[in-house]
Design brief:
Protein name: Lytic transglycosylase domain-containing protein
Number of domains: 2
Shape: globular
GO molecular function, one term: peptidoglycan lytic transglycosylase activity
Radius of gyration: 25 Å
CATH class of the largest domain: Mainly Alpha
Largest sheet: 2 strands, antiparallel
Family: Belongs to the transglycosylase Slt family.
Number of helices: 12
Strand content: under 5%
Strand order of the largest sheet: 1-2
Pfam family, one: SLT
Helix content: 40-55%
Structural class: mainly alpha
């Protein structure tokens, strides 16, 4: 199926059909699936490096906290409700805009933001930063330093010890939770499979008559996105005049 248009006046004047320069639905489908695959799977190592660079937190500090908090277990949940690799509380995750607390990248980024805020609050003092991360900054203020809690004091010592070690991070690969949304906000998680299925059978996607409910959902999502933004990713005013529905 293609989404071509003709320029009515030009076609009438010349007596021939004009070929639209607008991309076909097949091309849009391919381009959208390609956009969805841009977010390559990440390893924990690469996520820690990215978080460190983005928020200015030493990478060994991030890894040491993750080691102490969950031993790098993404699905870890404490009795208090702290979750994920960096053991974030739900309210903290919400504060940092985390939509999936168990997604490794979102969780690590949230932990990095919390540590960065503490480092700024305590002028780079790592021990106070860790105490605040574990017991809350309110308790650090209340006691004028590391709170006299055995758990917090042991936590600070443990993380400081890990920081001096060569921490082995599990070589596990994760797919970012938001990757299926591509760059347009449309769920394209099944588009790549739809396209590859057509290629494998020697037919184009347009020739594939097995139109499933999942295909219908993706098709509607693409149409809605096109109505909002046009086929082209360029949303500038100049490009608006070339939207397919005008």
């Amino acid at each position: 199926m293609t989404a071509s248009r003709t320029s009515g006046s030009a076609a009438a004047a010349s007596g021939t059909s004009a070929v639209s320069s607008q991309p076909s639905f097949q091309n849009v489908l391919s381009r959208t699936a390609s956009a969805a695959s841009v977010s390559a799977p990440s390893t924990l190592e690469s996520i820690f490096a990215k978080a460190s660079q983005k928020y200015g937190v030493p990478e060994n500090l991030l890894k040491a906290v993750a080691k102490a908090e969950s031993d790098f277990q993404a699905n870890c949940v404490s009795s208090a409700g702290a979750s994920g690799i960096m053991q974030l509380m739900p309210e903290t995750a919400k504060e940092y805009g985390i939509t999936d607390i168990f997604d490794p990248e979102q969780n690590i980024m949230g932990g990095a933001q919390e540590l960065a805020a503490n480092l700024k609050r305590y002028n780079g003092d790592i021990k106070l930063t860790l105490a605040g991360y574990n017991a809350g900054c309110g308790n650090v203020a209340k006691y004028g330093g590391i709170p006299p809690f055995a758990e917090t004091q042991n936590y600070v010592k443990k993380v400081m010890s890990y920081m001096g070690q060569d921490i082995q991070v599990p070589n596990t690969t994760y797919q970012a939770a938001s990757a299926s949304a591509g760059t347009s906000g449309v769920d394209t998680s099944g588009l790549a499979n739809l396209l590859s299925a057509g290629s494998a059978s020697g037919t184009s996607t347009a020739d594939n008559t097995d139109f499933t409910y999942q295909d219908y959902q993706m098709f509607v999502g693409l149409i809605v996105n096109a109505l909002k933004n046009g086929w082209d990713s360029d949303s500038s005013e100049n490009s608006r005049s070339s939207y397919w529905y005008r």
